[in-house]
Amino acid sequence: MTNSPEPVDEPGATGASTETTAATAATEPAEAEPTETPVPSEPPVPSEPPEPSEPPEPSEPPGSAELRDRWRRALADLDNLRKRHAKELPREREAERARVCTDWLPVLDNLELALTHAGSDTGSVVQGVRAVRDQAVDVLHRLGYPRDDETGVPFDPLRHEVVSVVDDPGTEPGTVVQCLRPGYGTPGHQLRPMAAVVSKRQE
């Protein structure tokens, strides 16, 4: 059996092969580089609306400063008047009580005088007491509380207080026939009403 000789590479074969490979690479289209897929951008965040600015203060009308000053002065005067009134009120009350008591002093003096002469003359004592009573009634009248002891007048609930009712054929029904206790003052301004006996309606 004969061994066939192994092929021997000829010189230059390698170079030719290299050139062929280079030529083939040159003729083949170059692979396109992969392009990056664009990333969708995020939608823009809406900016916050600007805070509304405070409206400018309206300008004061002319003369308002003077009116404000007058108003403050009036308030101060009113406060001073209130304080003065609160301070003077007790003094005025005390002065009024003193005037009323002064009007009653002559009544007390005459009562003292009547008691002094009580043992000597009974008739003069009675006259003296009656005079003192009239003087006291006059004092009440001058103070605004006149005496009310009138009889024979129609019954008035604003002036009279019914204490008793009697059958009096000689008078109209509802007539004041007797005064049991005099009243003092006028309707709406009384110390007390008159206690009266009133005639009733005939059956």
Description:
The chain has helices at residues 13-27, 64-116, 122-142, and strands spanning 147-148, 160-166, 176-181, 183-186, 189-192, 194-199. The chain is α+β, with helices and mostly antiparallel strands. It has a three-stranded antiparallel β-sheet. The longest helix is centred in the middle third of the chain and has 53 residues, at 64-116.
Please summarize what this structure is.
The protein is α+β, with helices and mostly antiparallel strands and 203 residues long.
Task: Tell me roughly what share of residues is in helical segments.
Answer: 40-55%
Query: How many helices does DSSP assign?
Result: 3
Spatial strand order of the main sheet: 1-4-5
What overall form do the CA principal axes indicate? elongated
Q: What is the gyration radius calculated from CA atoms?
A: 64 Å
Low-confidence region ranges: 1-32
Estimated structural class: alpha+beta
